Amino acid sequence: MGKNTMTLTDNRTGKSFEYNIIDGTRGPSVVDIRSFYKDSGMFTFDPGYTSTASCESKITFIDGENSELRYRGIPIEDLAGKSSYLDVCYLLMNGNLPTPEQSKNFDLEIRHRSFLDEGILRLFDALPDHAHPMATMGAATMALATIYKDHLNPSNEDEFRVMRRRILAKMPTIAAMAYRNSIGVPMIYPDINRYFTENFLYMLRAYPGGKLKYLGNGHNDEIKQVEVDALDAILTLHADHEQNASTTTVRNVGSTEAHPYVSIASGIAALWGSAHGGANERVMEQLKLIGDVKNVPTYIAKAKDKNDPFRLMGFGHRVYKNRDPRAQELKKLQDKLREELHLDSHLLDIAAAVEKAALSDDYFVSRGLYPNIDFYSGVILTALKIPIEMFTPIFVIGRIPGWISQWTELKQDPTAKIARPRQLYTGK
Ligand code: CMC
Q: Hey, which residues does 68 pair with through a beta bridge?
């Protein structure tokens, strides 16, 4: 038996199989079981992939025990609120932060690529009023593949670079238009004089004719720099998260040689679920449902009751069994913005009471259930006058650089294969 190997013995036959242990730069080592079926005639069984590393990656690292998250080696604490979101996108897509000149050119290019083909706008017309923006975004993203038919040749780096930048630039436009379409107000085109994040707020809030008014309250409402900075930091904290459910979906669809934007549309579908990115919308609904600090114990009891399907939204994570570092950064942002953006103190009080009750309860402590990123984003997004149904679309906008970098990495991996797991058959 070699030092860096693991031997598995089938106790029924006494046969042993030896597998290499591979060390990454950080994180748990892996046992390379790629030949296991060929060797033993058996599959490994790991529903939900709790013990499976599905790929090799150089993009994002998480240490769930020590609350650590790094993009291309840089801790998120050094990026959120310190580098612009677009610089972080550049980092994820290229492996390094841009020089000031690269940053300027990247920003300019993204501004110019933010427009949508008019054919996509006609697609919005075909969808019903009150459609959830996530459904519309999935459809519009899929439809991009009808326009950009290339983007499939991994040896053509220029083509891949344009493909990545295009989807990054267009997603805020798709999201804002999906929302505007759902409430039946005229579309607002991107304003290339505005930075990415400001432009998104502009497209969400503006009325045709140039005057900015918040849709819904009718007051003049210019976009404040503090709002742009807050949303920029939120986008940064969502930018990548290694092989989560939606990223794995993007990679799985990409492994079939599907178009990158079709893979991204599948990622949007996967993210929408309430166990994943859809939780941010559900957190806000739940805080409103709890309604008052005095009701918190009732809902904590419901969350603990195994006969009640109620789960505390914004709590728990597959990887973080300790504090979610993204949540910690958002909590700091929340505290900083409390006065400046007039955060809803009633909701904040309920959220604080939920957190305090959960973190002093053995049910949550023993299972390592801490507030996750979705627990803190909602109150800030509400203060930015973002409608609740746009919470998960904001997660999508933030996650684009992660998904598209992971897709590119897959395509450039010569050992990549179509994702095709097997099963334990127990049927007739
Ligand atoms: N409320 C009550 N109990 C919970 C919760 C919760 N939010 N989350 C997990 N548990 C319990 C669960 O019932 C199980 O208990 P037991 O061991 O007695 O059966 C234990 O904790 C482990 O849970 P699990 O479902 O096996 O863990 P998982 O790793 O498969 O699921 C999760 C992780 C995020 C899906 C889950 O914690 C959850 O549903 N949380 C609420 C939804 C949420 O906030 N999602 C956003 C995640 S962060 C954004 C993102 O990156 O997607």
A: 63
